[in-house]
Design goal:
Elements lengths: L2 E7 L4 H13 L4 E5 L7 H7 L3 H5 L3 E3 L2 H4 L5 E5 L17 H7 L6 E6 L8 H5 L3 E3 L12 H14 L12 H17 L4 H18 L3 H20 L1
Parallel strand pairs: 1-2, 1-5, 2-3, 4-5, 4-6
Length: about 240
């Protein structure tokens, strides 16, 4: 099964941290990571966590930087309340929780699910690093959910899908990073316009994330990119 790691990025409310911990235990998740929390993790957090205080909250890992927090992740999944179907806004195209769960069936590795600050969510820089984005369909009248409620919906979908029995060899995050770097080398080789490179690279990473490449597919893609770079340089 994919190991699920819940990452709260700069949480502002200890009550929400406790509520997320409780929802995690409801659905069989134990790995909680806090990145540069802006609140104390004290009495209120433990009160809201209830029986999840000791097994989840007290054992949470705390990091000052997101980079260090994600060092062991093979896939990074961002959550957002802002969505679009406009293909030109590809960095905001997201999956529903059920579509996300279907995508990672068969994935073997650590999946980090990121939840942002209560007021602003995940910033653009963080979103650009995510392999997948997830948005919960809600009423247009009031689309933004409380972080603990949104987390519970996603945890429920994972639990219902029986994530614990998924198995397969998939490309790890390090390999996807290498694939993206190779793609950037191809952009250099073909002298792709500089002002378009960031968006194009983000689009490529997101495409590879949605594809959830197998090891074999990863090696094929790397071979194709290497050949294309060689041809571009020789030409």
């Amino acid at each position: 099964m994919p190991a699920i790691e819940v990452v709260l990025v700069r949480p502002q409310s200890e009550g929400n941290v406790g509520a997320v911990a409780r929802a995690m235990m409801n659905f069989g998740l134990k790995e909680l990571v806090l990145v540069d929390p802006e609140c104390e993790i004290g009495v209120e957090a433990r009160r809201r966590a209830m029986h999840a205080a000791e097994p989840v909250l007290d054992r949470a890992k705390v990091f000052k930087s997101l980079t260090r927090a994600l060092a062991r992740a093979d896939m990074v999944v961002g959550t957002t309340g802002v969505k679009t179907k406009n293909p030109k806004k590809f960095d905001r195209i997201s999956l529903t929780p059920r579509e996300f769960v279907d995508k990672i069936k068969g994935f073997e590795g650590k999946v980090a699910i990121l939840f942002g600050q209560e007021d602003f969510g995940l910033d653009r820089k963080t979103i650009s690093k995510c392999d997948l984005l997830v948005t919960i369909p809600t009423s247009e009248e009031y689309p933004i959910m409380n972080v603990s409620h949104a987390a519970a919906v996603i945890f429920y979908e994972l639990f219902q899908a029986g994530a614990r029995v998924w198995k397969s060899k998939r490309a790890a995050r390090l390999e996807i990073d290498l694939l993206v770097r190779q793609f950037e080398c191809l952009l250099d080789a073909i002298e792709y316009p500089m002002h378009k490179r960031r968006k194009t690279t983000v689009m490529f990473r997101r495409m590879m994330g949605r594809a959830v490449l197998s090891k074999w597919e990863y090696h094929v893609m790397m071979g194709v990119l290497k050949d294309a770079i060689r041809e571009a340089k020789d030409g």
